[in-house]
Amino acid sequence: MIFKMAVNNVKKSFKDYTIYFLTLTFSVCIFYSFNSIHAQSAVLEVGNSSISYMQTLTNLISIASVFISVILTGLIVYANNFIIKRRTKELGIYMTLGMGKRKMSKIFIYETLIIGGLSLGVGLVLGIIASQVLSVMTANLFALNMTRFKFVLSIDAIIKTIVYFGIAFVIVMGLNQVIISKYKLIDMLNASKKNEDTKVKNPVISVSLFLVSVVLIGLSYNLVLDVGLSTREPLFLLSVVLGILGTGLCFYSLAGFLILMIQKTKKVYLKNLNIFTLRQVNNKINTNFMSISIICLMLFVTIVSLFTMFSYKANLDESIKGNTSFDASAVLYTSQTNEEGDSIEEALDQLDFSFNDSEEYLFFNEYALDLQVADIVSPYIDASNVHELENRADDRNIKVFTLTDYNAAMQLKDEQTVTLRDNELLVATNYGDKIESINRFMENEDAISINNQPYTIKNDDLIMDNIENQPHNTDFFYLVVPDDLSEELTLSGTRVNVDFGDDNREESEAKFAALFDCFNTIGGEFTQEVGFIQGFTREQATAILYGNSAVIIFLGLYVGIVVLISSAAVLGVQQLSEANTSLNRYTTLKKIGVTEKMINRTIFIQTLIAFMFPFVLAVIHSIIGIIVTSDAFATRNKNVIGSSSLMISIVIALIYGGYFYVTYVGYKNIVKNS
């Protein structure tokens, strides 16, 4: 009997459960998708160098899932409370007919199990589909090929999802019993008669506070644009505080400000149900200004983090192009060798390391000038980029390579060689797309002085190519000079670049990777014997570069989507809860002859405003945030940011727009069925 009532209640009230069902389904889908990442490494061609990053990513996602599950449980509880409040009058009728609270609790337990089971099933199906997309994304982030791609199904992730959400449903059922046990009959029957509490009644005060909020937000923008993402700067902290205060004050005063502005335009204010709509919006914003402010800030953080992470990844794709030019590359610095004059060739001989017949290799020297990047471009450095340049230069002297060695490296890569006169040199860097001072230097200077001898810069445009594999720091700056000049320069290291050839590539990769891994710890057996060699295969360099970014992007995407769902769900539940408290007003409108079409229109406008106000301000905040983070992560290339904009916008539109539509339909049905 009780179970049958629960089934009938779910059938007839499924529209009321829509937002609850949507929240549960989204949560299950996201939770399964990200926790199934460990299964993807088995079907993708993940190299040995990338496996450790996949394991790290899996472990971090498992840890993050604990915190995510707490957030999602709170969200489920919040949405469930709406269901109870929505049906308090129904429960009151049950109680007047003699039904005990224990039986009512059982009804809710069965309803929770039914809705939970449905959402868990649908969410897992969607999650399994989404995880296939995540597999493609994983391959892209780790620069892997998809030749072994196949359908992924993670039993471990399914079990973990069922366990986590099973615990959440148990908590919900327990809280339902507590809530129902505390309800009184009079509260249940009169639950829909509560009114909102208006915070600011004087429109003049509202306008004044709104203008103050605009000033605070403007000051926050100005400060953060000046100091950038320097979290240790007191001004950065001040900009954050001003931004939070300005956002809260904006929503606190927004309703009164809107009323005053629209009242001045009588044609708009008196048209259709605009007076009623405006008062409804006024009450909603006044009542929930604190939660709306928090949602706005959550949306801001989500949007900025999503854009920044994908922009960083796209920027990494651009900057890595010249940094993994060889199948293997290594250096032995002279300051770290045991005896003066040791070279990397002699060190490899000491280790009895030999090259295969299919492997082409080049030994060459690296020299250093008594100059840093900042020294030669100092006339063109301004306050806006001096810190950025200093951080990248890192007090290192400019590297120099001879023309013969440079051309030999180009031939190893099957690229065109160059020629130089005795008084010419070439400038190569990938600083140029980030540091304006270097671009200005190239535009205004035609020579660089070395040992008091001027050398003409032959190339008009910066050469964007590296002469080594380098995963840790993708910024480099070096000069190519005539061979004779090497006699006047200081030897700083000896290098080797290798091309594995088409035969035995896997064998060569394993051999060089094992060699370089032996030198990971300075002071080890190999280091004591021959000195410290720093080297990377292309696979190792790519794994380090993409592995770190993949971990950051996946975690940010995971948390970002959950925060986005939480924000949209809270807004939706708020609107549907307030629909119950406004039923008497809509009943009155019907009695005086207002059509259903006009009522639906005012519901649409109210819901749209409720969703758009925090979103629009979050987008405005995000524009400044993206500018600041782009500068910090050197993503000034607009194409880099644009490449990820469409995908991110689609994800946000689907989730946030989906909640808006479901909320609007739910609100409309509540009023219609009243």
Mind explaining what this structure looks like?
- The protein is α+β, with helices and mostly antiparallel strands and 674 residues long.
- The protein has 3 domains: 1-193, no CATH class; 195-264; 328-542, no CATH class.
- The protein has helices spanning 2-12, 18-35, 37-40, 48-86, 88-96, 101-141, 155-182, 185-189, 203-227, 234-263, 266-269, 274-319, 344-350, 373-377, 386-393, 403-412, 436-444, 505-517, 525-530, 538-581, 583-591, 596-632, 638-673, and strands at residues 328-333, 360-368, 399-402, 424-429, 447-450, 453-457, 477-481, 490-499, 533-537.
- A 9-stranded mixed beta sheet has the order 5-6-4-7-3-2-8-1-9.
- Strand 5 and strand 6 form a beta hairpin.
- Helix 2 (18-35) runs antiparallel to helix 4 (48-86) and helix 12 runs parallel beside helix 22.
- The longest helix has 46 residues, at 274-319.
Task: List the topology elements.
Layout lengths: L1 H11 L5 H18 L1 H4 L7 H39 L1 H9 L4 H41 L13 H28 L2 H5 L13 H25 L6 H30 L2 H4 L4 H46 L8 E6 L10 H7 L9 E9 L4 H5 L8 H8 L5 E4 H10 L11 E6 L6 H9 L2 E4 L2 E5 L19 E5 L8 E10 L5 H13 L7 H6 L2 E5 H44 L1 H9 L4 H37 L5 H36 L1
Parallel strand pairs: 3-7, 4-6
Antiparallel strand pairs: 1-8, 1-9, 2-3, 2-8, 4-7, 5-6
Helix pairs in contact: 1-6, 2-4, 2-6, 2-7, 2-20, 4-7, 4-20, 6-7, 9-10, 10-12, 12-20, 12-22, 12-23, 20-23, 22-23
